[in-house]
Amino acid sequence: MRDRRLAETAGRRGERLASWWLRLHGWEILARRVRTPAGEVDLVARKANLVAFVEVKQRKTVAALDFAIDERRLARVAAAAEVLMSRFAEPGDDIRVDVILLAPGTRPRHIENAWIG
């Protein structure tokens, strides 16, 4: 139980850092931790006419980031994004799934349009 709480705390900290990073780069955070029957989206962000459904992954080492995200996880985020599109996107908006990878001692790695399904 303690390990789960620590992971939850670390996850929330990672999402705060990713939000900060996105805002520094001109994004507006529309929502955090949005749950749907299809899955959860960590962050929903907007920049002009682009809405990004963002998966945030934090690891203890930079090397571990290479294994932090897989196709199955991205598919769940994409399915959740599909459910949420009508809630956050306006007609004419572009929509994509992004990933932000975080590890100590390195800048966040923002992978744009990570899901092409």
Describe the structure.
With 117 residues, this protein is α+β, with helices and mostly antiparallel strands. 38% of the residues lie in helices and 33% in strands. It has helices spanning 2-24, 62-65, 71-88; strands at 28-36, 39-47, 50-58, 94-102, 109-111. Strands 1-2-3-4-5 form a five-stranded mixed sheet, with helices on both faces. The chain is globular and about 40 Å long.
Quaternary structure annotation: single chain
Task: Provide the succession of SSEs.
Answer: HEEEHHEE
Shape: globular
Structural class, by secondary structure, is: alpha+beta
Low-confidence stretches are: none
* Helix content percent band: 25-40%
Strand order of the largest sheet: 1-2-3-4-5
Q: Mind summarizing the main beta sheet?
A: 5 strands, mixed
Query: Could you tell me the radius of gyration in angstroms?
Result: 14 Å
Strand content: 25-35%
